[in-house]
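Let's practice the habit of predicting before peeking. Look at the sequence and jot down your guess about where helices and strands might fall. Then scroll down.
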Amino acid sequence: MAVLLALLSSAMWGTSDFCGGTLTRRRPAVTVAAVSELVGLAGILVAAIAAGALSASPGYVGWGLLGAVAGTVGIVAFYEALATGTMGIIAPIAAMGVVVPVAVGLAGGDRPSALQVAGIAVAIVGIVLASGPELRRDVDGLSAARPLWLAGLAAVGFGVVFVALAHGAKHNTLMTLVVMRAVAIVLMVAIALVTSTSLRVGAGDAPMLVVVGAFDVGANVTFAYATRHGLLAVVSVLSSLYPAVTVVLARAVHTERLARLQLAGVIAALGGVVLIAS
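Done guessing? Here is the structure:
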């Protein structure tokens, strides 16, 4: 059961990322992120009310605020990177956010296993191989390095979110997520107002936006249940495979093609992520 839930979590995260990136090719990243976060907030809020979590001790608030700021930066940068870069390269780079909690653990006295150290090395080599050809070309006069830097920024943001969630969960997981999503929506609306970005979406965008928001929440829920019924190490490894889903969908739907060197880099990056998560 735990294995199936973890794989389901991976599939939903990967699909959510793909749909979010695809939507951002025709809608502003802030718009896609804000509306999908609203969908996710509705689902988490219902779960929190049903679980009676609204009366939980407020120790989660600070961590929720940190996660909201980091998550807003991360998701907007990620969607923009997916929309303007090659999804098959952007997704594995953003998945390197797992390095952040590893670094925090090191600072707190943790010692990574030999597999994790090897994973970091393999992932870095993979990212260099995958992104190298991208750095040497331009797209419509714009440097192709921009999506790569955005993916790196997204990785840092996601990594900080992992840390905030881990600490917030010590108080209440559901309420930490409620605060994160609610504050993130406020931040995104503020960004939209400052940049004069419309938050309106077309009726045709609604189904995909629901998938983005609902699948993201669903992935969090299935991951949480998987950790309760199986070994965390196994569940984490299987759940970290979500970039592979994004890569496959990008190839099938957008007919993305990678050079052999890039493909080898993507495989190495994904392998490194799995080793780090283990």
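How did you do? The two ends are 19 Å apart (CA to CA).
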